[in-house]
Amino acid sequence: MTDEKDTELDRFFDAAKATTPRPPEALMARVLADAEAAQPAPRGLPMPEAGSATGGGWFGRWLSGGFSGWRGATALGVVCLGLGLSVGYWQPTSLSPMTDAVLDGTGVETATEYLSLDDLMSEV
Amino acid sequence: MDMAFDAIDELSDDALIVLYGNGDRAAAAALTARLTPLVFSLAMRMLNDRAEAEDLTQEAMLRLWRMAPDWEPGAAKVSTWLYQVAANLARDRLRKRRGLGLDEVPEPQDDTPGVEVAMIGKDRAEALHRALDRLPERQKEAVVLRHIEGLSNPEIADVLKIGVEAVESLTSRGKRKLKELLLGQKQELGLEE
Q1: ipTM
Q2: In this complex, is the C-beta atom of B18 within 8 Å of any C-beta atom belonging to chain A?
Q3: Cβ contact (<8 Å) for A23 and B37?
C-alpha cells in the first residue's frame, strides 16, 4: 500500500520535473548584464603607465624617476666620488708597470720596451 | 583572452567562477546560461509567482557575481552555494508575504475539490505545487530540492545548514503530508484514473 502510494506520489514529482519552468530571455539578458557590470577587469601582464618611456624594474624606475631630479644627481655624484677614491686607494695591479715607469722617470718609452712590434713579429 | 565557448562548456562551475573573477567574459555568459535556470526553477517552485521568481533569481545571481572574486575553489559547490542563497531569499519573501494584509496577499489559485480535471502532466504538476504550498517551510524546501530539483541528501543538508538525518526526517514528513493532500482526495479532485 505504501509502495503504491509512493509510486502515485512519484508521478506527481515526475510531472513537476517535466514542467520545469524556464527563465525568460529577458531575465537571462538582465542577469548577463549584471554579470558584465560586476565583473572585475581582465587580469593580464601589468602594462607600463602611460608616458613611461622605459621598461619595468628598479633601474628603469630610477632612470625615469629619481635620476632626473636633484636627488638622483646627488646620488650619482656620491657614487662616482666613492668609486674614484676607491680606485685611487686600491691601485689596480694591471696599471702598475705604466704608472711606475712614469713615476720613476724612466718614461713611457722605456716602459714600452717591454714589448715591441719586432718582438712580436720574431715570435711568429 | 576569453576562452572559446565549446571549450568553456567543458569546465566545472568552480573553474568558471575563477575565470569570471579574472575578467573572462565567456565565463560570465557560460555561468549565466548554466546557473540561472537552476535558480529560477527553485524560485518558481518555492514562490509560485513568476514576477517574484524573476526578481529573486536576478538578486541571487547578482550575489554570485559579487562573491566571485573571493571564491575559494574546492571549498564548496557553486550550485549548492547558489541554492542556499536562493532558499534564503525565498524564505524571506514568503515571510514578508505572510506579514501582508489580507487585501495585499495574491489571490490563491483555485484548489477547490470536485473540479473535473483531466490529469495530464501539467495538472498533476499544478496540484503538487498547490499541495507543496501547504507544507511547513522547511519540509517544502527539502521535498522540492530532493524530489524535484534532484539534489542528494548531503547537498540539501549543506543548502539548509542542517544534518543529513534532519533532511531525511523533513522529506519523509513532507512526503507523508503530500500523500494525504494529493492521494487522499484523489477521487474528490477528479484525479482517479
Answers
A1: 0.81
A2: no
A3: yes
